[in-house]
Write a structure and sequence with these properties.
The protein is of the alpha/beta class and about 140 residues long. It has 5 helices and 9 strands; from the N terminus they run E-E-H-H-E-H-E-E-H-E-H-E-E-E. About 25% of the residues lie in helices and about 20% in strands. It binds magnesium ion.
Length: about 140
């Protein structure tokens, strides 16, 4: 099945919370899963990206079409690491997928937040997650 562009109607479901998806290294890391999820999600689907908004949305829309992602709108949230969390709160998103601890750590705790393992946060050599003092806390014995 090939989906060229499939927009979800706004306010499709008042009983299902909106779903938030990061684009780079989240959708692009697992496009088949996120295509299935976005096409089957009964509520709105927002793409929240840290990409800067250009004169057109063509690059992002082309990427989403290429991966068969159904979505309500693309939100550009690239000003601060708290920016995505603010957008998520404003849109009432209750499920969010992102690959960046920097963004995930600011998301309200009542949002089910799934961090996608990838090259931004995982080193396959030692088989360890990567974080900074700002994004992670080492637990357990040193
Ligand atoms: Mg990302």
């Amino acid at each position: 099945m090939k989906i060229i562009k499939q927009y979800k109607p706004t306010r499709m479901s008042s009983t299902h919370p909106p779903l938030g998806l990061d684009l780079d290294d989240t959708i692009t890391a697992h496009p088949e899963f996120f295509s299935w999820l976005s096409c089957n999600w009964p509520g709105e689907v927002y793409i929240i990206t840290a990409r800067g908004e250009g004169a057109t949305r063509d690059p992002e829309e082309n990427d989403l079409a290429k991966h068969g992602i159904a979505f309500t709108d693309i939100i550009y949230a690239n000003e601060t690491s708290e920016c995505k969390a603010n957008v998520i709160r404003e849109l009432g998103i209750k499920i969010m997928f992102d690959d960046m601890f920097e963004f995930a750590r600011h998301i309200d705790s009542d949002v089910a937040t799934f961090v996608v393992k990838g090259s931004n946060n995982f080193d396959p050599g030692p088989n360890l997650f990567c974080f900074t003092r700002d994004t992670g806390k080492l637990i357990g014995p040193p």
